[in-house]
Amino acid sequence: MTAPKDRPQTANDDAMLQRQDPRQLAAIDLGSNSFHLLVARYQDDRLQVVTRCGEKVQLAAGLDGRNHLDEAAIQRALTCLDRFLPYLAGVARDRLRVVGTSALRTALNRQSFVERAEALLGCRVEIISGEEEARLIYLGASHTLAANGRRLVVDIGGGSTEFIIGDPSGPLLLQSLDVGCVTHTRRHFSDGTVNEANMRRAEADVLARLEAIEANYRELGWSEALGSSGTIKAAASVLATSGGQPGIVTRSGLQTLRQRLIECERLDNVTLEGLKPDRSRIFPAGVAILGAIFETFELTTMNYADGALREGVLHDMLACAPLQQA
């Protein structure tokens, strides 16, 4: 693959090596909805963010009926990675970890994309299992919050949703379900309408899938529920604009939000204060998934955790190969 012509010019290889900082490390999350880059520097016994950026790619939307990624989705993905390259000039390639999740797990032609992405980035691209994704999500979420007993962590992605129960020692129970806000939009909102009927169908779909894991999670139990990533962050943001407590999703607030989305009638009409425009079309599906989770586990509140897969990848790298202090 040749790099897109609009890519910013980077320095030559010798200059790049001179600029590399041995205390920098980076993670790229090839998500089913968005790609995210996180570059950090290990200093004063902690990771200090150097660069954080993300771009909506909607890789999962490029999966056809045979579970093949179409060329348009692959090109969107490669163009995004090309735009990430200038931010990686100071990172040695053995300190860059790139992980693919649900959409790439599903894509039967994923190797075609992987080979082109590896050639562009100059490092290996890993397609991680749902269980490994859940483990890394918990690692990322737990490092952003003080230790506080046993937790249920939920991460709604574009193509899958992860459920983890853990405590300060680490994860105790991990599960990944093949339901996400992009794939659920295609499944239940494909005609572009938002009404009571398709919201109910979307919720019922998730409720049925949760039956398989509900008993084990209830048996282990938790003292607080945390949510990470875009859907839960967006729900908390929208609720905060209408008087809710920042960073918290409540069951009553979620029910009100559900009704507000139905009143929008169409995905193209979803415009809510606190909601980014590029999330509006997949937001009703995300709210349906989140509502089913609240119902299954009888949650009343969920706190947003500002840490997820990419933060977990960095902490995992650090644990496996500690960096020298600045």
Strand content: 15-25%
Strand order in the sheet with the most strands: 8-7-6-9-11-10
Content-based structural category = alpha/beta
Largest sheet: 6 strands, mixed
Task: Give the distance, in angstroms, between the N- and C-terminal Cα atoms.
Answer: 38 Å
Radius of gyration: 20 Å
Mean pLDDT: 91
Low-confidence stretches at least 5 residues in length (pLDDT < 50)?
1-18
SSE arrangement, N to C:
HEEEHEHHEHEEEHHEHEHHEH
Chart the SSEs and their pairings:
Elements: H1 13-19, E1 24-30, E2 34-43, E3 46-56, H2 71-84, E4 96-100, H3 102-106, H4 110-121, E5 125-127, H5 130-143, E6 151-156, E7 161-167, E8 170-177, H6 181-188, H7 196-220, E9 224-228, H8 230-241, E10 248-250, H9 251-264, H10 283-296, E11 301-304, H11 309-320
Parallel strand pairs: 1-4, 4-5, 6-9, 9-11
Antiparallel strand pairs: 1-2, 2-3, 6-7, 7-8, 10-11
Give the tags.
alpha/beta; 11 strands
Summarize, please.
This protein has helices at residues 13-19, 71-84, 102-106, 110-121, 130-143, 181-188, 196-220, 230-241, 251-264, 283-296, 309-320, and strands at 24-30, 34-43, 46-56, 96-100, 125-127, 151-156, 161-167, 170-177, 224-228, 248-250, 301-304.
